[in-house]
Amino acid sequence: MEIHMPYTLLILLFFFIIITTIAFKCLISNKNKNQPWKLPLFGHIHHLLASPPHHALKTLAEKHGPIVHLQLGHVSTLLISSSHFAKEIMKTHDLSFANRPKLLTVELIAYNYTDIAFAPYGDYWRQMRKICVLELLSAKKVESFRSVREQVSWDLLDSITMQRSKAVNLTEMISIVMNTIICRVVVGRGCRDQEMLLKLINDAVHLSSGFDVADLFPSVKVLPLITGTRRKMMKIRKELDKIFDRIISDHQERRRVKCENENEDLLSVLLRLKYDGGLEFPLTFDNIKGVMLDVFAGGTDNPSAIVQWAMSELLRNPKEMKKAQAEVRQVLKGRQKIHESDVQGLEYLKLVIKETLRLHPPLPLLVPRECREECEIGGCRIPIKTKVIINAWKIARDPDYWIDPESFIPERFSESRISMMGTDFEYLPFGAGRRMCPGSLLGLANTELPLAMLLYHFNWELPDGAKPEDLDMSESFGASLKRKNDLLVVPIPYDSSTDH
Ligand code: HEM
């Protein structure tokens, strides 16, 4: 049922929230000072909804300490902002925090939590995670899509070259590249309704950030009806479902004629597992759609954001840009086309990506966890169902762990052994522990080749003679941490003969 919001209802709702807010006054306890704080909640929610939440939460942590208990609406939330407490959550007590919170927005969109990212910790999640790690996103599987990445990167080269030194919208171009790669990885070729699919997923993930009013007041059942969240999510869900159904039936039709030696795309793997049987939880079509949703959501926007931020940082730091270009040009020695094997030797490029992930992690607050067994963190008892937000973005800019943390210095990783794979808790672009990202290999492979290609074939300038320091670096918090404004740049084709 849809309720079209009459104003009186809205006003009533507003007062209801204020009253419950006052009743639930936000208890913020600073564990460092061992002193409870009481602050009106509404101001904080307003800040969270108004500015990028990782910024607002950083300010909160600076004021109240690295472990803060806050009542976000009706949701009891633990905010973690230090490497020490991140390790407590994701290593020492990983099992106690292996759940995800239940969000109405996710329930509506992620096939009732039967995807992987939001499935509750338990046997079903373990089965799906195993399929993910062994069958869908293993190093061998990622490697098998090498030719897809090469072809799509070469197509990008052609479309930029055609612009003949006019300004190009790199944001749009990179998004298309990532969309195309992930469609071919999942379906074996371009998806029907590709653009619409990705828009819907983007809208869905944006609404599922956990900061939607309906998710902050889950016990107010009428809220999603009044705010329109339920209507919006149901609309997205219906459209998405239709597209996924068409993709699956097209795919089954095509696969009736099976070609020998053809690389198995991810949907083929899932359908094989469905029909071969033998799984403790036989896969339904909804389960398959849930996994596809995760792969599209994780595999499109995140790598796209990394390439855009890396290019933005290099444009703002010409010395580092020159160094990255010199490396790839030296390795390729004037060859016409870049291949994935060339990327293996690009040490500086990898440092650039690492430093980009430090300053601009696509998921700055990771994916929230939820406490499933009572435990003690920093001397506090954490009850079951407490939601946990880890501000990985703040930790990765903390002067306690990083020298000159706001500056882009890829070299900082050259001597350091800090890994991005969840063992060093001051640097967590892919999270850590049992629920760590299983798609890091695919995500990085999809990032490295297009970035190397951009650096090899072109020199880059900002339009209208703008200076590096003029480049706007504002962020927009959504499905992933993106540039607020599209990245417009002028490509100058690089002529290797001028180097000699
Ligand atoms: C390269 C960019 C990527 C980044 C930075 C990234 C980051 C993350 C982070 C921070 C988490 C939460 C980890 C935690 O809770 O500790 C996560 C979870 C997840 N990611 Fe990624 N991701 C990326 C690419 C991908 C790709 C390409 C896929 C799939 C094709 C993917 C699929 C997932 C899934 C399924 C989860 C949930 C795992 C679970 O709950 O068991 N990600 N990702």
TrEMBL record:
Task: Supply the source organism for this entry.
Answer: Deinandra increscens subsp. villosa
Gene Ontology CC terms: membrane
Parts forming coiled coils: none
Q: Work out whether the entry's keyword set contains Translocase.
A: no
Q: Which residues bind heme?
A: C437
**InterPro entries documented for this protein:** CYP450_71D, Cyt_P450, Cyt_P450_CS, Cyt_P450_E_grp-I, Cyt_P450_sf
Q: Which Gene3D superfamilies match?
A: Cytochrome P450
Which cofactors does this gene product need? heme
Q: Pfam families, alphabetically?
A: p450
Q: CDD domains given for it?
A: CYP71-like (cd11072)
Q: Name one GO biological process term.
A: sesquiterpene biosynthetic process
| Keyword terms, alphabetized | Glycoprotein, Heme, Iron, Metal-binding, Monooxygenase, Oxidoreductase, Signal-anchor, Transmembrane
**Key word Metal-binding present:** yes
**How does the protein associate with the membrane?**
Single-pass type II membrane protein
What the record says about family reads: Belongs to the cytochrome P450 family.
Q: What is its main location?
A: membrane
In Swiss-Prot or TrEMBL terms, this protein is called Cytochrome P450
